[in-house]
C-alpha cells in the first residue's frame, strides 16, 4: 500500500491533462464473456438480435482490428484493468479448480483452501479504478471480477466504491453457484439473497442503482456480464450450455437438435444482455449524461464452440484470430464522430491509458504500461502507435508484427499475412522464412523482457 500511495503522489504532482475546468466524463466499460467476433448485428450477424449494441455502433466507432491480451478470461481481464501484459502483471493463468472437469463436487472446506479460492492478482498492481478514484471518480464494479475471491483481492479493495457480482470464472445464471459453491458477492460478503433471479437482470438492477446514485460526481462503472459464457453447473443437462430466460428464448425458433437448442440459448442470452445494456444507456440519456459519457464495449476473448467467430479461424483458448480478435465499440458523443469504422491495429492495452487521459489525468510514472491513449486514433488525428503484439498461454505462443501473424500452438502452427488472409488459411512459413525469423526473434525478445520484469504473483517464483 505504501507503493501505491507513492505512485498516486507522483500521479498528482503532474496535475491534469489540460482539461482546465472542463467536466470529467463518465466512463462505462462493458465486458461480455466469450462472445464471438461475428455475434453482433453491427459485425454482420443476421441471426442474433442485438439492436442496442448495434445502435451503440451506429452512434460511435466500430473497431474491427481490436485484440485482447489473452484467449482466456482471467489473463485477458488482468491486462485490461491494469494496462499491462498478463506476463508483466503476474496474472497470466486462470484461477480455476480443474477437478470440476471430472464431476467433483467440492465441499465447503475443500473449496475454501482450493487454488480457485485463494489465488488473486498481485496486490502491488494498480487498477484503472484506483487511478480514477484518486482523480475524483465514484467507481462501481458489477458482474464478473475473476481476479481473486479473498477479501483483499476484491474490487472494493482495488479502488471501487461498490461491488456486486462474482469473483470466480463462471456461475450458474440462476443459482449463482459455481459447481455447487455459492459465489454471488455483495460488497465484500457472499450473498444468497438474490438466488433464483437471472444474473443479467441482477447486473442491470445494480448498474442502474449505481448510476442513479452518482449524480453530481463523475462515475466509472465496469459492467462485466457473464453472458454468454456457459453455465458452471455439474448437472449434465446444464453443464456446457448457456442459460436464458423463457422470455428471450421465445424470440428464437426451437431446434430439433441438442446443439441447435444450445445455440438458441446462446443467442437468447446475448439478446437479453443487449436489452440490459440498452436500458442502462437509456437511463444515462435520461439523466442528461449521454454527451459526456465515454462508453466502451468489448468481449473478453473469442467465442466458444457455440459462437460464430467468422471470418476468423479458431476461438476461445486459441491464438488464431478467433481467440484474440474481438468486437469492440466506443462511443463518446462530445469527442467522437458517429457511425465510424476503424480498422487500426489496437488492443485492450490501449483502454487504460485512454480512460486516464479522458479523465484529465496522467499515468503513474513509476509503472511500465504496454499501451497508449488511442482516442486520437479513433478521432482520425493520428495513426496507431501499435505495430506489434505478443501472446503466450499454456505453451501456445503468437506474435503479430504489422500485418504478419505467427502462431505456434497445440491447435496448429503457421505464418500468415492478415492483410490478404484474415482467416489464417495459407501458411507462408516456407515461402517467407525471413519474416518467420523476424517474428520469432521479436517474440523471444518480448518473452525475455517479460521474464526480466519486476516479478509479480501469484505464479512466479520470487
UniProtKB/TrEMBL annotation:
GO terms for molecular function: arylsulfatase activity. Pfam families: Sulfatase (PF00884). The keyword Hydrolase applies. The keyword Hydrolase applies. Residues 25-360 form the Sulfatase N-terminal domain. Keywords: Hydrolase. Belongs to the sulfatase family. This is Arylsulfatase. It comes from Cyclobacterium amurskyense.
Amino acid at each position: 500500500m505504501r507503493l501505491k500511495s507513492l505512485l498516486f503522489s507522483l500521479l498528482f504532482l503532474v496535475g491534469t491533462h489540460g482539461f482546465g475546468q472542463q467536466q470529467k466524463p463518465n466512463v462505462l466499460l462493458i465486458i461480455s464473456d466469450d462472445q464471438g467476433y461475428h455475434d453482433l448485428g453491427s459485425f454482420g450477424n443476421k441471426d442474433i438480435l442485438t439492436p442496442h449494441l448495434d445502435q451503440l455502433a451506429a452512434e460511435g466507432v466500430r473497431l474491427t482490428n481490436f485484440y485482447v491480451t489473452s484467449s482466456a478470461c482471467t489473463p485477458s481481464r488482468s491486462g485490461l484493468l491494469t494496462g499491462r501484459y498478463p506476463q508483466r502483471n503476474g496474472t497470466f493463468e486462470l484461477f480455476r479448480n480443474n477437478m470440476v472437469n471430472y464431476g467433483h463436487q467440492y465441499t465447503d472446506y475443500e473449496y475454501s483452501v482450493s487454488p480457485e479460492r485463494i489465488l488473486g492478482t498481485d496486490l502491488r498492481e494498480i487498477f484503472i479504478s484506483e487511478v480514477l478514484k484518486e482523480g475524483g471518480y465514484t467507481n462501481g464494479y458489477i458482474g464478473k471480477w475473476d481476479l481473486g475471491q479473498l477479501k483483499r483481492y476484491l474490487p472494493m479493495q482495488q479502488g471501487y466504491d461498490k461491488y456486486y457480482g462474482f469473483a470466480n470464472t463462471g456461475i450458474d445464471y440462476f443459482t449463482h453457484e459455481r459447481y455447487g459453491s455459492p459465489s454471488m458477492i455483495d460488497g465484500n460478503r457472499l450473498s444468497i439473497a438474490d438466488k433464483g433471479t437471472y444474473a443479467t437482470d441482477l447486473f442491470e438492477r445494480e448498474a442502474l442503482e449505481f448510476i442513479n446514485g452518482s449524480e453530481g460526481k463523475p462515475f466509472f462503472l465496469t459492467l462485466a456480464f457473464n453472458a454468454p459464457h456457459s453455465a458452471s453447473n455439474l448437472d449434465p443437462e446444464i453443464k456446457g450450455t448457456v442459460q436464458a430466460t423463457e422470455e428471450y428464448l421465445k424470440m428464437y425458433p426451437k431446434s430439433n437438435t441438442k446443439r441447435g437448442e444450445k445455440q438458441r440459448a446462446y443467442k437468447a442470452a446475448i439478446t437479453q444482455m443487449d436489452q440490459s445494456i440498452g436500458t442502462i444507456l437509456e437511463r444515462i440519456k435520461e439523466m442528461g449524461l449521454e454527451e459526456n459519457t465515454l462508453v466502451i464495449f468489448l468481449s473478453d476473448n473469442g467465442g466458444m464452440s457455440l459462437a460464430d467467430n467468422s471470418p476468423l479461424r479458431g476461438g476461445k483458448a486459441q491464438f488464431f484470430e478467433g481467440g484474440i480478435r474481438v468486437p469492440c465499440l466506443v462511443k463518446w458523443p462530445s469527442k467522437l464522430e458517429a457511425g465510424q469504422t476503424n480498422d487500426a491495429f489496437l488492443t485492450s492495452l490501449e483502454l487504460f491509458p485512454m480512460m486516464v487521459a479522458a479523465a484529465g489525468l496522467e499515468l503513474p510514472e513509476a509503472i511500465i504500461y504496454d499501451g497508449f491513449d488511442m482516442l486520437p486514433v479513433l478521432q482520425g488525428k493520428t495513426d496507431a502507435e501499435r505495430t506489434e503484439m505478443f501472446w503466450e498461454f499454456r505453451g501456445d505462443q503468437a506474435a503479430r508484427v504489422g500485418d504478419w501473424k505467427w502462431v505456434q500452438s497445440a491447435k496448429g502452427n503457421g505464418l500468415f499475412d492478415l492483410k490478404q488472409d484474415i482467416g489464417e488459411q495459407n501458411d507462408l512459413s516456407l515461402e517467407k522464412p525471413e519474416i518467420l525469423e523476424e517474428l520469432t526473434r521479436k517474440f523471444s525478445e518480448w518473452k525475455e523482457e517479460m521474464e526480466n520484469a519486476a516479478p509479480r504473483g501469484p505464479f512466479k517464483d520470487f
